[in-house]
Amino acid sequence: MSHKQSRQSRTVAVINPMTHYKPTKVRWLEEGRIAMGKLTLIAGDPGLGKSFMTLELAARVSRGEVGRTEELLSGRAVIMSAEDDAGDTLVPRLTAMHARMNRVHFIEGMRNANTQHESDTNEAHAPNQSGNSIDLPALDKDTDLLIDAIEALGDVTLVVIDPISAYMGRADSHNNAEVRSVLAQLARLAQVTGAAVVCVTHLNKDSSGKRAVYRAMGSLAFTAAARTVHLVTKHPKNENDEFADRKRVVSMVKNNLGPIVPARVYVIDEGSLVWLDEELTMDPDALDEDGASFDTRETQGDRATVFLERILDAGSQPAREVLERGEAQGISENALKRAKKQLNAMSYKQGTIWYWSRQGEPDTELMRDSIEPEIETDHQDEHVPESLGDFGR
Asked: Rounded to two decimals, what is the model's pTM?
């Protein structure tokens, strides 16, 4: 048998024309924020309530208040938590948030079947065996077993992994290739089960002045793999707000499935998370972990320049993304173009995507996940139409 025939007998490439596929809409667990069958990342420093936020979401899932369909009025949530004990932490918090406890499930870990058999047949060793035989799931080797367990439960619409770094197995959390390999398995779990997979992570220590999307701990592959990324920070200081110290802000810093939505605000009150009727249109890149602005210049005349300078200092950015983020901050396209000239920033095209840069070097990680702008060119400069079109349609 030839080498070519041998390879063909082991594996076959699956290639279909695009007519084979039907266009589908994104299904949202939380509209515009957390998608079903996809990975979501929530990043923030310890003590800000990230775990409270995921538990509050699990409670609403159990009550059928999110992800509701005509066929399914409530769902199940599965929680993997390496830092919080189920009995003294998770159960009291879920109870305070009025979760239907029989529809929220905790994955303690993975038990070796042989060890289980030995503990069943040898009573003298049973206490030790049962206590030591359960290990944390390792996503580099246990994904298929987790898929089986989740599908056996049925109706699972949310899987929480808190923190993701505790479940990487032998993979190095700072190695791009190893992280991508593990997260590809996790993305497959989300796709196969159809559940929204929400991963929690901490921020790296050197966060000051960095673009928000770079501030998650570990490899940039974590934020690259997630379809939506949210940053949790303290509330910006406001002398007129006596409750600001208790407030936390959740800002969306990446969305590959739709537009960036306004930031939301919550407080932790009597062991429960409460969402406030307050939305912010601030730029998460402008805040540090304490909610303070990196730049103190606030005059209207230089606002666009400060905004653009901060963004481009992180490297080349897709033009469409710059314009969208500016619009979210109330900065017009014309103001940004004037600021671009003032900063002597350049435009260049990579493939079909236009970039703005002060350095002239594309950021390949951001290029890979950028959304192509609808820009027409005349070989001299780019032109951005007034409408940037719909997302995720």
From this structure: 0.67
